[in-house]
Design a protein that fits this description.
Blueprint (H helix, E strand, L loop, with lengths): L1 H13 L10 E7 L4 E6 L10 H18 L22
Antiparallel strand pairs: 1-2
Length: 91
């Protein structure tokens, strides 16, 4: 988890619109059923130019960094057990 946090912060710091002060912050927020939840806070130089593009670009960078580091993003998985029904009795 420490490596994940480091990579998340790297992704935010590397984005050209991210400012240094205040510095990006990343917090571990929750352990979910199939997840470990972090929150990333980073500030950009000019929100009037748009905030969605930098957010998306940072998230894609996180995705690539995780992939390159061998960190998988968990997803819910379900096991299905098939039971055979009893054989019909012949009268």
């Amino acid at each position: 988890m420490e490596q994940a946090q480091t990579l998340i912060l790297e992704a935010a710091r590397e984005h050209p619109s991210t400012i240094d002060d205040p510095a990006p912050q990343c917090f571990l927020r929750n352990f979910g059923d199939s997840s470990v939840d972090f929150i990333l806070l980073f500030w950009i130089e000019d929100v009037v130019k748009g905030r969605w593009a930098p957010q998306s670009e940072v998230m894609f960078t996180i995705w690539r960094k995780f992939r390159d580091a061998g960190i998988e993003i968990p997803f819910p998985q379900r096991d299905v057990h098939l039971k055979s029904s009893p054989s019909p009795t012949k009268a």
